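Worked example

This section walks through a single chain of length 74. The input is the sequence exactly as stored; nothing has been trimmed or padded.
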Amino acid sequence: MKSLWLIPLLFAPSALALTDAEFQKLHRQLQPDPKATWRTIPWKTSVLDAQAEAARTGKPIFIWAMDGHPLGCT
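Given that input, the structure is written out below as tokens.
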């Protein structure tokens, strides 16, 4: 019952329709800068690999952790 208000949207022309060229342009604009500093950091996705490298090089481990939905950090 709650979703009945969505039915008219099925018949409305999409105002958000993109041509292939518009999509490609938008996609290029949304890409992160390849020269961004964070891209130069040798990130590890395995805590065990990071621990082994930290022990080998004598450097600390920085862990970035969060919970919840990635679009709404809690």
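What to look for: Residues 59 and 66 are 23 Å apart (CA to CA).
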